[in-house]
């Protein structure tokens, strides 16, 4: 009998797609061209994630801290988000990829918000093959701060008992649409988390890849998945 899901234990993958700028510089291109190439790579990794039967792919597209970048770069990224949605939503819909954007997406302004809403409603389906979650203007610390305020207000308004605050309450109050990350990949050579999904990566396997994101291939992704399969995940137990 064929094994339907060979990656039954690999459900939720997150990626810090780093290195677009350095890749552009290395190839004497504009930074915006690095980001453009980065979007093409996302498309490839989405295809591979479907083949690998992964449930969710959560990608870091723009952090709370990235607002400190030059205005020209931020504008190029805003345009890329709109263009990527226009170009890719019909195909993503056909492939049953359910899109979800999360973070302080409102910071991106009316035009981007409208596109995001369109992308989410167009790709909404019950029998999805992959959840593609895109972090936009997201910061893990900000997320925790927001959810603490949200939960505190519920307690203050007497809608929630303090004793009923548990892990699932924290998960449902977070803006992140995924609970436990199984595998976190960061490209670009740096070994840090840069304020991504702080709560959700508590037990993630973390892989740091030296290649810049625009150089990351389906083969590299498959290698990460295969390395994940070899890891003994003990979760604190004696096995
Ligand atoms: C990651 O690539 C994409 C974003 C942060 C938007 P970078 O733009 O950070 O690339 P490097 O790290 O400067 O090479
Ligand atoms: C992390 O990359 C954010 C994204 C990939 C969107 P950065 O390039 O912003 O992170 P730092 O500055 O190296 O920590
Ligand atoms: Mg970077």
From TrEMBL:
Cofactor(s) needed: Mg(2+)
Keyword Transferase found: yes
Binding site for substrate: 19-23, 35, 63-65, 67, 69, 186, 192-194
Source lineage: Bacteria, Pseudomonadati, Pseudomonadota, Gammaproteobacteria, SAR86 cluster
Name of the molecule in the record: Ditrans,polycis-undecaprenyl-diphosphate synthase ((2E,6E)-farnesyl-diphosphate specific)
Its EC number(s): 2.5.1.31
Record's function text: Catalyzes the sequential condensation of isopentenyl diphosphate (IPP) with (2E,6E)-farnesyl diphosphate (E,E-FPP) to yield (2Z,6Z,10Z,14Z,18Z,22Z,26Z,30Z,34E,38E)-undecaprenyl diphosphate (di-trans,octa-cis-UPP). UPP is the precursor of glycosyl carrier lipid in the biosynthesis of bacterial cell wall polysaccharide components such as peptidoglycan and lipopolysaccharide.
Residues the entry annotates as binding Mg(2+): 18, 205
Assembly and oligomerization: Homodimer.
Native source species: SAR86 cluster bacterium SAR86A
Keyword Transferase: yes
């Amino acid at each position: 009998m064929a094994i339907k899901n060979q990656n039954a234990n690999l459900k939720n993958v997150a990626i810090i797609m780093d290195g677009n700028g350095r890749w552009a510089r290395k190839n004497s291109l504009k930074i915006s061209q690095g980001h453009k190439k980065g979007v093409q790579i996302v498309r490839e990794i989405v295809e591979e994630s479907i083949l690998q039967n992964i449930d969710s792919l959560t990608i870091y597209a723009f952090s709370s801290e990235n607002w400190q970048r030059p205005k020209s770069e931020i504008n190029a990224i805003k345009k890329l988000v709109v263009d990527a949605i226009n170009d890719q939503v019909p195909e993503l819909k056909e492939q049953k990829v359910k899109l979800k954007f999360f973070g302080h997406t409102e910071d991106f302004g009316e035009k981007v918000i409208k596109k995001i809403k369109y992308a989410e409603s167009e790709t909404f389906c019950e029998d999805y093959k992959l959840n593609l979650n895109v972090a936009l203007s997201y910061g893990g610390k900000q997320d925790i701060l927001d959810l603490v305020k949200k939960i505190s207000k519920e307690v203050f308004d007497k809608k929630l008992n303090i004793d009923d605050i548990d892990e699932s309450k924290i998960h449902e109050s977070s803006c992140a649409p995924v609970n436990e990350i199984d595998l976190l990949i960061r490209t670009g050579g740096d070994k840090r988390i840069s304020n991504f999904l702080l709560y959700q990566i508590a037990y993630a396997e973390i892989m740091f890849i030296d290649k810049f994101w625009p150089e990351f291939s389906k083969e590299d992704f498959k290698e990460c998945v295969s390395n994940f399969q070899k890891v003994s995940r003990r979760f604190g137990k004696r096995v």
